[in-house]
Write a structure and sequence with these properties.
heterotrimer, A alpha/beta, B mainly alpha, C alpha+beta, A: alpha/beta, B: 76% helix
Chain lengths: 272, 256, 291
């Protein structure tokens, strides 16, 4: 089966590679950074397990340093896990990382684009890295730039963009290959309210395309607005999992912040 | 290895020549400046029995091979800065989440550096020719000069990678890279006569072999001369050693 | 139309052959060299082998028996012994080949008319980039074996390299066996110590051997080896005393110091190649470990 066929099947919910019914499955994942002494060990991710259904927008919510980015980095293949298994698109991240990379789009926390290139050049580059055809890149590029309001600034070098514009460009770059699985690491951090809303609308629209989205955030309202289900992480451990409304009802809280407060005794914004 | 990926990277790396002032200056303007400044400064100074060649001629002409070699060496700076900045901006990590292989990424740097080397040498040759130099070099010598500098460009990638590995930031890289550049420029560029004892030291510098071969070609030495081919052979191995060392070190220590 | 085509074809063929037609300058059949040809030899004086020669004062003996004047062998030693072999390189370039002449070439020593071809060229020596000398020279290629024997002063020129310079180019028609037998006849006629000189023809030259005490004062044997190539150009000269080479002269090209491959290059190459192999091994190991 060719790579493009692989991706088409994956986007239709037909995960190639195994009988795994989930888009992403994480089993007892651990990431421990070892220091010279045992006491200096840092458990960035400490035995978390969850699954993400196909076409779902799944949120990892937690304070800074909780292990959200570490989890995404492990699932993208940027970090090796210490223990546990994870499957992305049915493929094991230890054995089939190259196949996983064909299925995923990653919007990292840092706006990682070439500053001396303009938006179009950045988007075309990453489209080419995913071997997307030129006319398809152009078509998608025009659409996304229009949707996110970057069309007019698209010929300006990225170094002249505001923080919010950079993050939007960051997101478009992740989407240019039309990946069936998307990792968004704090996609709206640094955006003003207006731009954030536009971005939320954009991410919400991805539901119609049957994309699976794993989104990390420490913004409560973002998790509540976008996510079908949310996993709350604290100190590398999964402390709550479920649809936002159910979690709020279950813990008799006003919002997910309240849920976090009831479980951990702290506010999300307080950090770890 | 996919051509589409490699060419996409090559394209943006060559675009940096125009869009990034540092790269433009180092790769294109610096060679021009060297030739023009030294050409006007030394172009009218006639020397007899110069250096180890015993030839007589205008001082500027004796320095041209060294300028070519030094210009090539300077390309380590944009390479070091590029890898450091890409790392700082999270681009390396981002590229690592795409299906791009390390071979494709490095291959694109190799190709773009080679193209830049060709552009540099062409600029210097044209300028030198217009200023009345290049009297003795043959056509085969000119072609071989391009080959030498293309191979030498590989060693600059190695220096750049090693610098990026050592440096914590792009700013630091801009300074640290001179550890590799300055000794070579002062000792191995054949710009001026040095005592023979320094040769032992320069033999551990790739610039020596590039500069030595270019000097022989510029003096019209026949291509059958073994020293030219030994210089080329050692330069090939030196460049491979540096680029592989750079890749290994950067993979292990430089990605964080 | 057919005739025109044939004519055109013939014309083209002739035109094609024109460049290969050489306008002969009536070069004799015994002349192998061509105008513009270049040759270069390396001269080596092995100073450490001259002790017995000096102790025996063989120079004086040779001056007496084989008088060559200022071109004697000792002069070769004096000129070059302060450097390491090969001390110098001798480039020769043929600039023009004259018209065959007949005359008293070796007069007054030899008043026999000899037919010869004069050759103009440049000759000289190179010690280093900074020390060399070049001059215009003329050689004469005699037309037969007996003339060559006379030109070599009955092979006495072979007792010193400098004297051999006059007979750099021999006729290609030479018969080395005839040369040797004629020589031996001359030595027999001369009698005395000259009869102690043994001569042997080689396919492309001759050997002269004088046994120890053959010249009375030589405590060791003297051996001379001379060879010419198929073009008649001197390709090898060696004179030994007691089995040790005093001087040899053979084809070699001067390579200036800065054009020679330094010895250190070999070590650098081996060192770098070893490092590269280690790096490749590490690279493969790291890839396997990752898998």
């Amino acid at each position: 089966m060719s790579k493009s066929e692989n991706m088409k099947r994956a986007s239709k919910g037909l995960i190639f590679g195994s009988d795994n019914p989930y888009a992403i499955e994480v089993k007892n994942l651990r990431k421990i950074y070892k220091g010279r002494k045992v006491i200096e060990e840092v458990k960035a991710v400490d035995g978390i397990s969850f699954f993400i259904n196909k076409g779902e927008i799944f949120g990892l919510l937690g304070p800074n340093g909780a292990g959200k980015t570490t989890t995404i980095n492990i699932l993208c293949g940027l970090l090796n896990q210490t223990e546990g298994d994870a499957f992305v698109g049915g493929y094991n991240i230890k054995k089939d990382l190259s196949k996983i990379k064909e299925l995923i789009g990653v919007c990292p926390q840092q706006a990682s684009v070439y500053q001396y290139l303009n938006a179009k050049e950045n988007i075309k580059l990453f489209g080419n890295l995913h071997l997307v055809k030129k006319d398809i890149i152009n078509e998608r590029m025009e659409k996304f730039l229009e949707l996110l309001g970057l069309a007019k600034a698209s010929n300006r070098a990225a170094k002249k963009y505001s923080g919010g514009m950079l993050r939007q460009l960051n997101l478009i770059v992740a989407l240019i290959s039309d990946p069936p699985i998307l990792f968004l690491d704090e996609p709206t951090v640094g955006m003003d309210a207006r731009v954030r809303r536009t971005t939320w609308e954009f991410i919400n629209s991805l539901k119609n395309t049957n994309k699976t989205v794993l989104l990390t955030t420490h913004y409560i309202e973002e998790a509540e607005a976008l996510c079908d289900r949310v996993a709350i992480i604290d100190f590398g451990k999964l402390v709550a999992l479920g649809p936002p409304k159910e979690l709020i009802e279950k813990h008799n809280a006003k919002d997910l912040e309240g849920v976090f407060l009831k479980i951990t005794g702290r506010r999300i914004m307080e950090g770890i | 290895m996919k051509r589409q990926r490699i060419f996409a990277f090559v394209k943006i790396q060559l675009q940096s020549l125009i869009k990034v002032p540092t790269a433009l200056f180092i790769v294109l303007l610096l060679p021009v400046a060297l030739i023009l400044i030294f050409g006007f400064a030394f172009g009218s100074i006639y020397v007899e029995d110069y250096g180890w060649t015993g030839q007589s001629g205008y001082l500027f002409e004796f320095m041209v091979p060294g300028f070519i070699a030094i210009s090539g060496l300077f390309m380590a700076i944009p390479v070091a800065l590029s890898f450091s900045e890409d790392r700082e901006q999270g681009l390396l990590k981002r590229i690592n989440t795409t299906p791009t292989s390390a071979a494709e990424f490095m291959g694109s740097h190799v190709i773009s550096n080679m193209i830049m080397a060709i552009i540099q040498v062409a600029i210097i040759f044209i300028l030198t020719f217009l200023m009345g130099g290049m009297k003795l070099i043959t056509l085969e010598g000119i072609i071989l000069s391009f080959v030498i500098m293309v191979i030498f460009s590989l060693s600059t990638i190695g220096f750049g990678l090693i610098t990026a590995t050592i440096s914590k930031s792009a700013k630091a890289a801009g300074g640290i890279v001179w550890i590799f550049l300055l000794p070579q420029q002062l000792l191995a560029a054949n710009l001026y006569p040095l005592p023979p004892e320094t040769q032992i030291v320069t033999m551990f510098m790739p610039l020596h072999y590039a500069s030595d071969a270019l000097t022989l070609l510029f003096y019209g030495v026949d291509l059958s001369n073994l020293r030219i081919w030994w210089d080329l052979m050692i330069l090939v191995i030196f460049s491979l050693v540096l680029i592989v060392a750079g890749i290994l070190l950067f993979k292990k220590y430089g990605r964080a | 139309m057919k005739k025109m085509k044939s004519l055109t074809l013939i014309t083209l063929v002739v035109l094609l052959f024109i460049p290969s037609i050489r306008i002969s300058n009536a070069q004799g059949s015994y002349v192998g060299i061509q105008n513009g040809e270049e040759y270069e030899w390396a001269l080596s004086v092995y100073t450490e082998n001259w002790n017995t020669y000096i102790a025996d004062d063989l120079g004086a003996t040779l001056d007496n028996l084989v008088p060559l004047g200022a071109s004697n062998l000792t002069r070769v030693f004096n000129d070059w012994n302060s450097f390491a072999p090969p001390q110098s390189y001798w480039p020769l370039k043929v600039t023009s080949i004259g018209v065959e002449e007949t005359g008293l070439l070796f007069s007054p020593d030899d008043n026999t008319t000899i037919t010869y071809m004069p050759v103009n060229g440049t000759f000289g020596w190179i010690l280093s980039v900074f020390d060399s000398l070049e001059w215009d020279e003329m050689w004469y290629i005699v037309n037969d074996t007996s003339s060559f024997l006379r030109q070599t002063m009955n092979l006495s020129r072979s007792f010193s390299l400098y004297s051999m310079f006059s007979v750099f180019i021999a006729p290609t028609t030479i018969s080395w066996s005839s040369l040797v037998s004629d020589f031996l006849a001359e030595m027999t006629a001369k009698g005395g110590l000259y009869t102690n000189i043994a001569a042997t023809a080689q396919s492309n030259g001759f050997l002269l051997d004088i046994p120890a005490l053959g010249f009375e004062n030589n405590s060791a044997a003297i051996n001379i080896n001379v060879r010419y190539n198929s073009k008649g150009v001197l390709s090898y000269y060696k004179i030994s005393y007691g089995g040790k080479t005093l001087v040899d002269f053979k084809p070699g090209k001067y390579i200036p110091e800065h054009e020679r491959v330094p010895d250190e290059y070999y070590f650098v190459f081996i060192g770098l190649a070893s490092i590269l192999i280690i790096e490749i091994i590490i690279f493969i190991y790291m890839r396997k470990r990752r898998k």
